[in-house]
Design a protein that fits this description.
single chain; 101 residues; 3 helices; elongated; 28% strand; alpha+beta
Length: 101
Amino acid sequence: MKRITTLVCLLAVSCVMFAGSKPKEPLRQVKYETTIDCKNCVKKVTENVSFEKGVKDLKAELSDKTVTIVYSPEKTDTLKLANAIRKLGYSAKVLEDAPVK
């Protein structure tokens, strides 16, 4: 009987914990215009910014000098990501920020 009571209590506590959790925000995608100008710049941005908190995917394009990042808005935002790019010595101007489809 003690085991059943304990099991019921644990089940009730877990239900209360999960009932209060808010739904996750959908991933977002931001595109930055940057001053990258060579393959090493692309490599530097890719290797460093990919490990920022909340980054799910990153593509740096040398042809149009852009960096596109898919990120979790619960963990980061466009300003923090832009600062991570700027910290490497490149500009970062937001061109587009939208939910991932």
